[in-house]
Amino acid sequence: MQEKNGNQIPTAFEALAPEAYMPRLQLFVRMLLGALSALYFNFITIPPLILSITQINCIILFYYALHIFGWWYYQKHGAKIMMFRLGSWIDVVGAFTAILCDPFIIPPTILLFLIAVLGNGIQHGLYIIVESMIGAFILGMTALVVHYRVLGVWPPYNLYFYVFFIIVGVNYSYFLVRRIELMKKEAIRISEYDSLTETLNRRAFFRVAEYLLLLNERMRIPLVFIFIDLDNFKAVNDQFGHDMGDKVLKHFSDMVQSNFRQTDIVARYGGDEFVILLTNTSREDAESAVRKLQVEYREWAQNNGLPVSFSFGLAVAPEGRSKLGDILKQADAALYGAKMKGCESNKALPVVKTKNGAAEGTSFNEAAKLRSMPAAHV
Asked: Per-domain residue ranges for the chain?
């Protein structure tokens, strides 16, 4: 467990739907645009430029089928970035086809490119809007060239300004979306990360842990929870001041993140308490890793003349459905046992039995009484 850990949320967790994603609204707009396109071409006063009405209707039905399949896939498998990209390209290619078929000198269907770029970009974020912009520009210019070659005329003067206005509007929207993305990332960092230790805070840890427990229920991913409590931390604050206490917390979190993997979750649970969630790890490997961390941290503290170390408790997530609260109580009770034992070790407790949804045995309140107790070191 020596990979450097940036304490990132797992990739699977980050792949969840964007916060701005509104799939029902997006499907409704796509169906509405398809219906408006069908009305436009079926009641047009002059024949389409390159395809028949029947062929255009078949293309619109195919457009419907692709997006309905995308909706079904989303309902069954959840949001995937590849499906976002595919849906965006379907919209851009649909706009390209509409311009090719539009018989008017200035095709109103050119606005479909604008809707495709802005709609997908705002829904799915910076990466999608850049890809949509590039695709819309290339296919849009190609469609207009073919459009006027088939018509046999030069583009009218005012068309150039339609295109320029659309390009300016799309680029302006890009910079706005980029700014919103940066602000959202900063807001997430502030709301989910502890500013001192740069680890996840308790709220973010609960969110990630609940998600991983759902994966464990379906895919049986081994999960080990570790509760850690710094021993004699209050004495450090009393003797050396709170600035030194902050340095102790920061150095401990740095050591944890350097000793564990990037796929492991590290969070400051509160005060001098930390919680680590190890994925795809056995209990034996987890205990070995945390004991190695104990030795390193104790040596660092002794070399700096600090009377601080830590105790820990382990809990393994059982197979099948399990409650996060019960698992945390089991780890907390193991930490309680380590404190009672009076040395830097952990006490393995049996799986917590539950009654009426609550864990039996050592309670949080009982364990909390020992949080401030200095451990007797051997």
From this structure: 11-192, 202-368
Q: How many residues does the chain have?
A: 378
Give per-residue pLDDT as tens, 3-27.
Answer: 444 444 443 333 344 445 788 899 9
Give the residue-averaged pLDDT of 357-368. 37
Provide the 10 A C-beta neighbour count for residue 113: 27
Query: 208 — phi, psi (to 5°)?
Result: -70, -40
Give residues with Cβ within 8 angstroms of 276, minimum separation 6. 225, 226, 228, 256, 260, 264, 265, 266, 267, 290
User: Is the Cβ–Cβ distance between 91 and 120 less than 8 Å?
Assistant: yes
The answer to whether residues 304 and 311 touch, using CB atoms and an 8 Å cutoff, is no
Could you read off the pLDDT of 25-75 as tens digits, one per residue? 999 999 999 999 999 999 998 999 999 999 999 999 999 999 999 999 988
For residues 59 and 97, the answer to whether their CB atoms sit within 8 Å is yes
Judging by beta carbons within 10 Å of its beta carbon (0-12, 13-18, 19+), is residue 230 exposed, middle or buried?
buried
Rounded Cα distance, 114 and 112, in Å = 5
Task: Spell out the residues 6+ positions from residue 166 whose beta carbon is closer than 8 angstroms to its own.
Answer: 110, 111, 113, 114
Q: Concatenated DSSP letters for 64-87? A: HHHHHHHHHHHHHH---HHHHHHH
Identify the CA nearest to 95 among candidates 153, 48, 137, 128.
137
Q: What is the CATH number of domain 202-368?
A: 3.30.70.270
pTM, full prediction: 0.58
The angle subtended at Cα 168 by Cα 165 and Cα 172, nearest 5°, is 140
